Please model this.
Amino acid sequence: MTDTVAHRIHPSSSAPTQRQAEAIALEDEHAAHNYHPLPVVIAEGAGAWVTDVDGRRYLDCLAAYSAVNFGHSNPLLLDAARAQLERITLTSRAFHNDQLGPFVTELAALAGKDMVLPMNTGAEAVESAIKVARAWGYRVKGVADGRANIIVMAGNFHGRTTTIVSFSDDPDARDGFGPYTPGFRTVPYGDAHAVASAIDEDTVAVLVEPIQGEAGIVVPPAEFLPALRALCDEHRVLLIADEIQSGLGRTGSTFACDLVGVVPDLYLLGKALGGGIVPVSAVVGDREVLGVLRPGEHGSTFGGNPLAAAVGRAVVALLATGEPQERAELLGRRLNADLDRLVGHGVVRVRGAGLWAGIDIDPALATGREVCELLMERGVLAKDTHGSTIRLAPPIVVEPADLDWAVDQLEAVLAELATRS
Ligand SMILES: *Cc1c(COP(=O)(O)O)cnc(C)c1O
Model:
């Protein structure tokens, strides 16, 4: 579906209507308060656009943290899901199903690897990789039982389980949830020397986001990942790339690692792998590593289910054309050129890769949250992260003119804030 600027209706007032207020009140009353959503109640979506319960339309510049890379209600992905819904949706891995084999074969081929461990959420893929790396360390590398360590980065975001928050340095994510899982060493992101110093004979893996998403789209120095690859080869350590947010087209390539020519031992995938329809995640790697798992050692009731596999296959087929990657690259260049003109006009700095931008707003002007609220009033949905940073990551199917329009709205918001202060 193609939206044009001329067809757009955007809200003129921020006051929530009765219908919105009711929906928000129900959520506030009965859903745990582990999020602080913008006051918009979405009812429908198509492509890069969503519609609220009152029929007002917004350009979705978050795309569910890149889980909706291919757009809302993507017709190809919906067709694949519908067809599979009518056939069978869940068998458990106690039996084989006719979608899993093709899915893992096609996904492994896309990644240039041998094997796939299918799971559901991103955090589960990370947890699975930690178990695999430890098992590989003990069984293949010969690390003494119970001694394996994994090197992680400051500012990381890998999910919300107790083990994963154990090695987060975000106090909101971590504080109050101990006791923490041992076996992790934190080093500064982007500092290969620090990684070299932290590696010892018990190190089994380096876990890294090739670009840190939640930290504010932080791109490391170009030599960082290649240096990690060399260190991991030298010390026989697994390089694990968490591409749950950066992978599958967002950065203008299939994986963010591709941008610097690095091939990790394990790719962790999630978010967009489920096409915005069902949660699908995966650990993708070679037989020497993923082959360490034996029956009964790891599993998931829903992992590898036929519906997830059918949707995952459609996602892989989309990416195999190379078109989403190419589009993200082209649109990303346009977005960055547009954003560059705001630097010095309320924007301190812009970071990014492909169709993914982290924008540091002048903290004297507003918080990221305030900017997002004002953008919402103008029909653009974005999300703040860490203080005065906002992130733009629209679905890759976004129309170029709509992207330009979103940046115009940001420019208008910043101008409005400048006159206010
Ligand atoms: C979102 C995310 C995760 C966690 O995925 P969930 O599906 O929310 O569990 C892990 N790593 C990265 C880099 C992410 O962005």
Summary: The longest strand covers residues 203-208. The two ends are 40 Å apart (CA to CA). Residues 129 and 283 are 7 Å apart (CA to CA). Residues 400-420 form the longest helix (21 residues).
